[in-house]
């Protein structure tokens, strides 16, 4: 179970990317985080494994508090958090297998890492996961020989062999064509079910989010303005997320409402066209 | 999981994954590595045998003495004038040699471009380029000094020679990179061979030609600063003389002058190339 | 605008034409001026080629019997290139990290890195060799040090540029899996610069073989010593033999270098 309490991030430039986000993700639910560019979606994801250092607030993974950890403890904690990146972030000049096995680095010695000697069960699992993501037989290809969709699947495999307690995906489909996007989302959904872990997915395309997610988080200007089941995401909710409501109380009210019941949101934000998918 | 050998069809016997290698197989890889390592060992042993620590330390001490005797550099008017005259000769050599070198290179470059030259000519010119690139210009300078006597002419011959290998090779590659579609299009209008060359080939390579020439000139400045060491004219003559007479403070002046001129040449060439391309 | 009456067309605007003309004039004038300054007679154009040709005729036939005598100097030439390159690579790795914007600690270290690179590159091998023969005495050791010092700038510059190209996204991904600092270096950074380091080193070795053939001019070892002696003694058929040997060894090292570099990607 992942819990964030009042998570805040202020960049040195003074930009407040997150204004205090509190939410809980549990079980094997697929949570899609939507919102306009610059709303703080990436910051939120990156704060969870502290690739970006949060300014304030708490992050609890299965009860243990992450923000208080020292550097080496945090490294150990990262083993429990899988991450999938928008630009795949594969080490281009390494083979597929080396990229996947790098997910096990936290568990092997430096010397073993140097000789590429991973425990047989790790290699075993790597082969299994490669099969799951549909890349069996590709283990000795170099990452830069693969297509975008294939690369993203290697990225997912790398995160999955970590045997994480939660998977974070930062815009995993933004660099992909529509067909590969669907394939990747489907794969993530399968993994959530199979590994029985929750997944948080930052996503740009609302239709994709609606199609695959169990729950939606809506972020606007660093503020969580929507948090509820996918079928509660109606036009009004999208309006609040993408346009921001005119008055701040509207937003608060909207949040309050969507949290309590997921029905239509008040009249204030009515009849504005959807700005989704920008 | 059975670890029986010969069970090759089981694709994931975990312990069997090995990092792929660029060599044919692991044995070849290790043979190559060990061979290279042995050669390196031989090199180190043969070069360092007879070189004792004390000699190195003594040498480094000498180095300090050398640097010390170079500073402050000699600045008497007479000597500065000599540096000026020889430096002018150096730069003039670079200009003339670039001109003659590029002139000679042009036909070789066209002949060595795969898309323009018929194959016997192509191989002939490629051969010329390989040979000119293999022999260093100082060697040519030594021979040229014997042939035409001490002085800048020998230097110009050596640097022109040096220009040929470099310029022809790179310019031939530029010619090979031209868009043949444009050439075809011009041909299709009924243009003659010469007209095609003027309208389709030259415009495509002209900026690269200017850029390469300037670049080569910059390298030629470097070369002409040292070519005097073997008597082929330029500031190197002075440098060698000052070393032989143990006038290290004057050598210091010359070295500083060389570095300044080389860097200025590099900056100028970079500026011109930016403007052209 | 008098458009109706027969339009004329020019390739470039007037100003541009003038600029181009001027540039061409200046270039021509410089070359002609240089020619005059050097007091080169035009007759040299006709007299030099026959003189060079005459020399070539005297070189024929090459002294094949002399070949065994130059095997060891040839091998020494390679030794100088090998050890010089290794020494240079070892010294240039830290220099490269200093001279790369994204890894250098501060402006001062950056400037230091650039200074080392520039000094090493702007002084010719033969000048370095002159300095080191004064320091260490004549011989292959001084030549090797000269080759090494000259190569630092080349390797340091190219490797530094490669380090500046490193993608930190890839590094970050390894960090996110929980790898140690050493492992992040091993999996995130080194794979990105290793092919460049190997390629640059082999390429430089190839250049150094060529460079080591001339060290003998200042008494710093290698095949050049033999060559210089033979030229001084006017033994032209020996000179021809040495030239053939140099040609062979340089072309050979070029092939080895090209093949080895093709294998590292």
Query: Pairing-aware structural class of the strands and helices of chain A?
Result: alpha/beta
| Average pLDDT reading of chain B | 85
- Radius of gyration of chain A (Å): 19 Å
What is the quaternary state of this protein? Answer: heterotrimer
- Number of E strands of chain A: 10
Describe the SSE topology.
The complex is a heterotrimer of chains A (278), B (277) and C (265).
Chain A: E1 2-10, E2 16-25, E3 30-34, H1 41-48, E4 56-61, E5 64-65, H2 71-78, E6 81-84, H3 96-101, H4 110-114, H5 120-132, H6 148-161, E7 166-170, H7 178-195, E8 199-202, H8 206-212, E9 215-220, E10 223-229, H9 235-243, H10 248-260
Parallel strand pairs in A: 3-8, 3-9, 6-7, 7-8
Antiparallel strand pairs in A: 1-2, 1-4, 4-5, 9-10
Chain B: H1 26-48, H2 53-70, H3 77-111, H4 119-134, H5 137-148, H6 152-176, H7 180-188, H8 193-226, H9 235-244, H10 248-276
Chain C: H1 14-37, H2 43-59, H3 71-98, H4 107-122, H5 125-136, H6 140-164, H7 168-176, H8 181-212, H9 223-232, H10 236-263
Main location (chain C): membrane
Membrane topology (chain C): Multi-pass membrane protein
Protein name (chain C): Phosphonate transport system permease protein
List keywords for this structure.
heterotrimer; A: about 280 residues; alpha/beta; 10 helices; about 35% helix; globular; C: about 260 residues; mainly alpha; MetI-like fold; extended
Quick take:
Chain B is built from ten helices and no strands.
What features would you describe in this structure?
Chain A has 278 residues and is of the alpha/beta class. Chain A is 36% helix and 21% strand. Chain A has 10 helices and 10 strands. In chain A, the strands form 2 sheets. A 6-stranded mixed beta sheet of chain A has the order 6-7-8-3-9-10, with helices on both faces. Chain A has a 4-stranded antiparallel beta sheet with strand order 2-1-4-5. The longest helix of chain A has 18 residues, at 178-195. Chain A is globular and about 55 Å long. Chain B is 76% helix and 0% strand. Chain B is built from 10 helices and no strands. Chain B has helices spanning 26-48, 53-70, 77-111, 119-134, 137-148, 152-176, 180-188, 193-226, 235-244, 248-276. In chain B, helix 3 packs antiparallel against helix 8 and helix 5 (137-148) packs across helix 6 (152-176). The longest helix of chain B has 35 residues, at 77-111. In chain C, 44% of the residues are buried. Chain C is extended. By secondary structure, chain C is mostly helical. Chain C has helices at 14-37, 43-59, 71-98, 107-122, 125-136, 140-164, 168-176, 181-212, 223-232, 236-263. Chains B and C meet through helix 1, helix 2, helix 3, helix 4 and helix 5 of B and helix 1, helix 2, helix 3, helix 4 and helix 5 of C.
């Amino acid at each position: 179970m992942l819990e964030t309490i009042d998570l805040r991030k202020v960049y040195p430039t003074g930009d407040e990317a997150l204004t205090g986000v509190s939410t809980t993700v549990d079980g094997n639910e697929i949570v899609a985080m939507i919102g306009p560019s610059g709303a703080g979606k990436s910051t939120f994801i990156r704060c969870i494994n502290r690739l970006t250092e949060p300014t304030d607030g708490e992050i609890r993974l299965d009860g243990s508090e992450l923000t208080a950890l020292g550097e080496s403890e945090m490294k150990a904690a990262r083993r429990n958090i899988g991450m999938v990146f928008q630009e795949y972030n594969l080490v281009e000049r390494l083979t597929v297998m080396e990229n996947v096995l790098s997910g096990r680095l936290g568990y092997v010695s430096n010397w073993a890492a140097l000789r590429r000697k991973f425990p047989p069960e790790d290699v075993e699992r790597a082969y299994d996961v490669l099969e799951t993501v549909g890349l069996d037989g590709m283990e000795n290809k170099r990452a830069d020989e693969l297509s975008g969709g294939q690369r993203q699947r290697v990225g997912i495999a790398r995160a999955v062999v970590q045997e994480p307690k939660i998977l974070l995906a930062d815009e995993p489909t933004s660099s992909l064509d529509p067909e590969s996007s669907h394939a990747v989302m489907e794969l993530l959904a399968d993994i959530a079910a199979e590994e029985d872990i929750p997944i948080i997915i930052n996503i740009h395309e609302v239709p994709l989010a609606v199609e695959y997610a169990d729950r939606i988080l809506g972020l606007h200007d660093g503020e969580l303005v929507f948090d509820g089941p996918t079928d509660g995401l109606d036009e009004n909710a999208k309006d609040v997320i993408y346009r921001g409501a005119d008055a701040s109380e509207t937003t608060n009210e909207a949040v309050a409402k969507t949290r309590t019941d997921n029905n239509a949101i008040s009249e204030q934000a009515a009849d504005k066209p959807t700005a989704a998918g920008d | 999981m059975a670890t029986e050998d010969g069970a090759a069809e089981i694709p994931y016997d975990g312990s069997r994954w090995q990092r792929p290698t660029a060599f044919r197989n692991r044995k070849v890889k290790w043979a190559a590595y060990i061979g290279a390592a042995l050669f390196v060992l031989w090199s180190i042993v043969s070069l360092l045998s007879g070189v004792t620590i004390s000699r190195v330390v003594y040498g480094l001490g000498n180095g300090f003495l050398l640097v010390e005797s170079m500073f402050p550099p000699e600045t008497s008017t007479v000597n500065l004038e000599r540096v000026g005259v020889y430096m002018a000769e150096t730069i003039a050599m670079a200009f003339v040699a670039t001109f003659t070198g590029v002139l000679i290179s042009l036909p070789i470059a066209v002949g060595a471009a795969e898309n323009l030259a018929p194959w016997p000519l192509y191989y002939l010119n490629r051969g010329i380029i390989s040979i000119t690139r293999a022999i260093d210009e100082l060697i040519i300078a030594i021979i040229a000094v014997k042939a035409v006597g001490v002085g800048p002419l020998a230097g110009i011959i050596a640097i022109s020679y040096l220009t040929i290998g470099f310029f022809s090779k790179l310019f031939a590659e530029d010619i090979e990179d031209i868009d043949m579609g444009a050439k075809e299009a011009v041909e299709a209008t009924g243009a003659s061979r010469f007209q095609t060359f003027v309208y389709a080939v030259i415009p495509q390579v002209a900026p690269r030609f200017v850029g390469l020439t300037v670049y080569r000139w910059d390298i030629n400045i470097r070369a002409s600063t040292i070519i005097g060491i073997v008597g082929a004219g330029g500031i190197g003559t002075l440098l060698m003389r000052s070393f032989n007479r143990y006038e290290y403070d004057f050598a210091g002046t010359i070295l500083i002058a060389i570095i300044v001129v080389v860097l200025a040449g590099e900056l100028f060439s970079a500026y011109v190339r930016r403007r052209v391309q | 605008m008098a458009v109706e009456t027969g339009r004329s067309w020019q390739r470039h605007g007037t100003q541009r034409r003038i600029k181009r003309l001027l540039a061409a004039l200046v270039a021509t004038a410089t070359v002609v001026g240089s020619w005059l300054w050097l007091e080169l007679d035009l007759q040299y154009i006709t007299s030099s080629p026959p003189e060079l040709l005459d020399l070539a005729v005297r070189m024929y036939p090459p002294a094949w019997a002399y070949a065994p005598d130059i095997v060891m100097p040839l091998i020494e030439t390679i030794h100088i290139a090998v050890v010089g390159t290794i020494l240079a690579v070892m010294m240039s790795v830290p220099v490269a990290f200093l001279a790369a914007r994204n890894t250098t600690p501060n402006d001062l270290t950056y400037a230091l890195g650039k200074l080392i690179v520039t000094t090493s590159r702007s002084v010719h091998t033969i000048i370095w060799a002159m300095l080191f023969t004064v320091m260490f005495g004549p011989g292959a050791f001084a030549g090797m040090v000269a080759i090494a010092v000259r190569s630092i700038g080349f390797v340091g510059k190219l490797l530094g540029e490669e380090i500046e190209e490193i993608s930190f996204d890839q590094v970050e991904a390894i960090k996110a899996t929980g790898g140690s600092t050493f492992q992040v270096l091993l999996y995130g950074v080194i794979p990105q610069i290793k092919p460049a380091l190997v390629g640059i080193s082999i390429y430089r070795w190839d250049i150094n073989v060529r460079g080591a053939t001339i060290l003998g001019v200042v008494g710093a070892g290698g095949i050049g010593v033999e060559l210089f002696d033979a030229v001084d003694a006017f033994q032209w058929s020996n000179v021809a033999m040495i030239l053939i040997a140099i040609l062979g060894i340089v072309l050979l090292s070029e092939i080895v270098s090209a093949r080895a570099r093709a294998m590292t990607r």
